[in-house]
């Protein structure tokens, strides 16, 4: 029900599955809107593998770390604008139209990127894709949330999260499929145009969000949709509760001509909702998830795997685990609750980051030495090594950090034995590989490489079910209807700004302070995130949106995160009865 708490007599996961034959219309709405999540995931994930081959085609990208970061992060800059503008489009024109606009932007961006003849044009295409990603990031979960029955709302919004991670997994499969095709990365980036067209066509045949229709005084249209969503014995109560809620919001809206940021922040429920919603979105990025998703193949190469294909194949494991974690989230989010899931997730992330920090520290301090004999075997010694005062003290890591123009050619007999420090170019790479040696420009050979893969896998396993999904679910639940579009836009914008900062700085940080210290920074941020969740994030499990507002109105900081939702509901009801007396 919209206006009261429903007792969930079975898991929301099983209830969600039963909809496939009880009410397939609800799943049709959710899956169609969720294609936006699929595009979101694909366009954020595909660049990780495409970047390996873009570096091969555009030498300016290969030489300049900041240009690699720019190709990744300009999409995020576009997403910031898309999320901000998307909030206004959502409230003014509706959730459906916002998703349709996102599809058009996805299509334009995919075509521009596939046809790009230089890095500048490629970046323009990334901006268009980013605009679409920003709009889809908030419009799709909002549409699903407002068109879902209460008891499965969390599970269906989590479905959007699953499709995001599914899109990322699909992007890695597509990357692998085109590694041998002419134009490699052009196919990888251009394929995104297909699901954008599919969603545009399907969504044209579906209605607008019923809550938005009620807000725009189009009640008959909204009632017709609710009758398709709810069973006959529930629908009248749902219509009445939604009507009362919207009428209250309209009365508030009439008191002022427009949404005032000052007034919004003075509203206790909105302010407390923003603390939790924006805070979670910021921490979601600053614990390092998109360094893994955007740079996963690069991280694998930093761990000592030289081949592009090997890096992509191993990265596919992390993408697959990410999708699997989203499935777990659909099952657990309405069963265990949002807050417990967040704390479990973040605790596991800390453990994973500790593993990665130790592994990369050991890899950097135990890299193969540089052999003068091996180096002299070739005629193109790295200039920095040639003029070094103590070349005998050089190892592989010192060679790669000396200059972007240096590369490491491993020993022919064993990659962990001393190798050669050479000029990094296509000719040298061919000469090295012709002798069946491995060629390294990103990371060094290491016996700890597989431990790094395990660390990445653990990170994804713990992150995905909780921090990967819950921030989006919570942001679709905790804001009053009148402010939902604006607050959702603010939260999504904070997510993309944080995402931009992390993506634009990760490679530079690994070069400046090393990969291990970079992951160490993420450890401290994750510990801060755990404290934040305990203090500021409410539990919304099983609560209709209207009850969430009431809970936030009367809620003070509560460290008892294991407290049941029913307790909150009883507290709210008791307060209301006392006030009425």
From TrEMBL:
Its localization reads: Membrane
Membrane topology of the entry: Multi-pass membrane protein
Q: Which PANTHER family match?
A: INOSITOL TRANSPORTER 4, PROTON MYO-INOSITOL COTRANSPORTER
The record's listing under InterPro entries reads: MFS_dom, MFS_sugar_transport-like, MFS_trans_sf, Myo-inositol_Transporter, Sugar/inositol_transpt, Sugar_transporter_CS
Q: Where are the transmembrane segments?
A: 29-54, 66-86, 98-117, 123-144, 156-178, 184-206, 273-296, 311-334, 341-360, 448-474, 486-507, 519-537
Q: Which organism is it from?
A: Clitoria ternatea
MF terms from GO for this chain are: myo-inositol:proton symporter activity
Record's protein name? Major facilitator superfamily (MFS) profile domain-containing protein
